[in-house]
Amino acid sequence: MLLKNHSKLALECGTDEAGRGCLAGPVTAAAVILPLTFENSLLNDSKQLSEHKRDLLKPIIELEALNFGVSHVFQEEIDQINILNASILAMHQSISQLITQPEFIIVDGNRFKPYGTIPFETIIKGDGKYLSIAAASVLAKTYRDAYMNTIHEEFPMYNWKQNKGYPTKEHREAIRKYGVTKYHRKSFRLLPEQLKLDI
């Protein structure tokens, strides 16, 4: 499906997050304002793209966007305020990095909190419909993956380079074997049989 611009507003920002369902690491959001003339046949929801295509798109988006912001909200804060609030906070923080204030915000998903007085719309599966949300999804995913690759070096036994902190069988096995790290979200159900985590 060809993605399109959501409206004719010159300063419309798309925002999306990555890592919401992970057991470890931050939730990462990006906000992107694209020029109205922006076109890219490769761009799609980051989950539909290979890692190679996301890595190709990242510098194109960064170069051609009018402006963009990316923000991590880390596991300690996720545990304090819950993952939904952390996702919205990451989106707000990424929007606050935009050099130009957007006139309108489009958000992937169905939950958001007002950012100042800027009007917004939540769009389910918006990352597969609109260019600016798709661009934000690619930046959020590539920046988060790069961070997970870095902390993988510190704790290679969890293979975050591969699973990026998602609840794969291998990741859960490593938690069972080695316990949890400072990067794990303590408020999450890290093991299926877990009632309470001994930490």
Automatic annotation (TrEMBL):
GO terms for molecular function: manganese ion binding; RNA binding; RNA-DNA hybrid ribonuclease activity. Keywords: Cytoplasm, Endonuclease, Hydrolase, Manganese, Metal-binding, Nuclease. A divalent metal cation binds at residues 16-17, 108. Its main location: cytoplasm. Its EC number is 3.1.26.4. CDD domains: RNase_HII_bacteria_HII_like (cd07182). Manganese or magnesium. Binds 1 divalent metal ion per monomer in the absence of substrate. May bind a second metal ion after substrate binding. One of its GO terms (cellular component) is cytoplasm. Its cofactor is Mn(2+); Mg(2+). Gene3D superfamilies: Ribonuclease H-like superfamily/Ribonuclease H. Residues 10-199 form the RNase H type-2 domain. It is found in: Cytoplasm. It catalyses: Endonucleolytic cleavage to 5'-phosphomonoester. Endonuclease that specifically degrades the RNA of RNA-DNA hybrids. Belongs to the RNase HII family. This is Ribonuclease HII. It comes from Mariniflexile fucanivorans. The lineage of its organism: Bacteria, Pseudomonadati, Bacteroidota, Flavobacteriia, Flavobacteriales.
